[in-house]
# Entry
Amino acid sequence: MSDPEAEVVGPPSVEAVPGQSALEVPPQPVYTMPPVSGFWRRFAAFLIDGLALGIFLQIIALPLSFVWFEFGPYGRIVGFLIALGYFGVLDSRAGGGQTLGKRLMKIAVRGADGQPIDEGVSVVRTLIWLVPASINGWAIPLMHHPVAAWVASFLIFGVGGAVVVTLVFNRRSRQGIHDLLTRSYVVRLNGQPVESMPSATRLPWILAGAVLLVTLISGVLITMLNPGGQFEYMRDVQQQLLADDRFFSASIMDRTYFQGGEETSHVLVVSVWHKGKPTDAERRSAVNDIVRAALAMDEIDNFEGIIVSVTSAYDLGLASYQTFSVEDESVETWRERLGVN
# Structure
């Protein structure tokens, strides 16, 4: 039987040897840089921001729609300035580098030092992608000028295309061309910290240059092969409609419909954007004048019918609203209605 008062003997103690230093463990590095964000997280944030801006613009547009209908496509200037302020300010130091979408997705814009970027840099960064996005489909008379149309195409497909391509294929630093040019990153704030921001390879620069070069060459070739436009014989009518103070824009298309591989109809399609909100009488007057101009064409007998579309709308970019009417009659029916031989 064991003695309850017996001394419990533990393992022998280890005494430090005089002059022996304790084992030194090198300190582990502490990383503070957030990692770069992936493409889909950035894309989700952009969708949220677009939705938020669209709702805001509709809120300020609907109560004063009668005013915005008078501005028509020029309302995009207001939408552009609001979007520029939204992204330019919130993506900068002033907004902590986060728009609403970025806050919800826990990402932010940062410089190479991990700090928010200056307001001026942020505005330039925003302009690089916002200008191509804003002029895409902008229906103002200036866009019918060959030089303006070429510049717009270069910005939309060249610069805009370079932004998209670099965002998708620059997998190392995840920087679009607008990030690369302003030395900025979009980082994931709740990610595992890294030692430093990654440097981009030469690939995104090559891709961006290739997109810009292809767009430039394509524009030159199209201009050389078709300097007068695809439907040069209709240009006089289009210019006549563009000069009409009632319309913001006008377009004419030569359209052929097929069924079962055989041509069924060959029609002239004329579309105009009417200023303001025309009454039924004003819309009818506009349609009649458009058709009279079309019937005066020497080539009008080459068509079976004429389709006229009259649109009235406002356009703030991410917020728009439109009403339209379409009338479709044969050339002979139009002549009878208008008393034109």
User: Anything to note?
Assistant: The chain has eleven helices and six strands. The chain has two domains: 39-225, 232-338.
